[in-house]
Amino acid sequence: MSTNNELVQLRDKVDEINLKIVELLNERGTVVQEIGKQKIKHGIKRFDPVREREVLDMIANVNDGPFETSTLQHIFKTIFQASLELQEDDHRKALLVSRKKKPENTIVRVKNDLIGDGSQSFIMGPCAVESYEQVRAVGQAMKQQGLTMMRGGAFKPRTSPYDFQGLGYEGLQILRDVADEFDLSVISEILNPNDVERALEYVDVIQIGARNMQNFDLLRTVGQVNKPVLLKRGLSATIEEFINAAEYIISQGNDQIILCERGIRTYERATRNTLDISAVPILKKETHLPVVVDVTHSTGRKDLLLPAAKAALAIGADAVMAEVHPDPAVALSDSAQQMNIPQFEEFMHELKDFRAKLQS
Ligand code: PEP
Ligand code: MN
């Protein structure tokens, strides 16, 4: 009984100290915030390692135990970190692309289509623009399927400099002409910040390819234009890096961003890349941006396009992207993974059926 009493008393004492610690920490926090304001006013960097070292040395000098100096220093390092976070601007804590900052979905308008409004759509088209006839054949097949968003590369980011690099502006013109004939919109990749402005005359969505996900100049440039951007996940990018790449764009004012999961590089060789299907709900949870799944570059296998596309729709993707070519065998890029037109028609038939079942 008496030991119990003693224990209760000791615990009361500890609680009293805990309260004091909380009070002191918050008092410290208030002072730290004031210091933060002074630092901003005088243009001094927030992180000050010399100052931290002084405090750690002071702890070593005055410490009489029972705690080890290293233990106290460890605790103080945590306090330093928390204080630094207190001094950080709001937008460092909540990114502009985050749901925390904006709970409702961002709906991206692509000509007459809305992406991110709950409907699930399709972005189809050749890997690269090779000729007017080639793009027109795909555009016509798309039109027959009631599709409205056409992709196609005019500037191709190829692994080898000796491979077909794309037709450039001539390719963009072909995309525009075919799109106008069939009332489609154009989604095309731009590689160079200097091409962005001129490309606006041809495209409805600027695509930033996987290899350029961390091309910060390019991201900032497309962040300054009034045109939607489809941002593809980097070859080996983490979700956090992907989200931060989108933040580069939105930080410049453009919030019309579509995220595209296109598979990541792993040790697996059975597919061209590994489709990170769980990235879709994570991105939708963490950000307010629409998410598209590119089943062509993620799988690199025609036999996996349909099951991967079904998985994408089932898990909540806002759109599915895939490549179509009138004669894939002679395509100048990604010849093994593009669908021919009958395969595309079959694919669309099955996928539309699946989407209707999901929605009912
Ligand atoms: C593409 O979509 O044309 C392309 C090159 O894909 P990625 O950037 O994802 O490799
Ligand atoms: Mn391709």
Automatic annotation (TrEMBL):
Gene3D superfamilies: Aldolase class I, Chorismate mutase. The keyword Chloroplast does not apply. Keywords: Transferase. GO terms for molecular function: aldehyde-lyase activity; chorismate mutase activity; transferase activity. The keyword Disulfide bond does not apply. It comes from the Bacteria. GO terms for biological process: aromatic amino acid family biosynthetic process; chorismate metabolic process. Residues 1-91 form the Chorismate mutase domain. It holds the Pfam family DAHP_synth_1. PROSITE patterns: CHORISMATE_MUT_2. This is Bifunctional 3-deoxy-7-phosphoheptulonate synthase/chorismate mutase. It comes from Gottfriedia solisilvae.
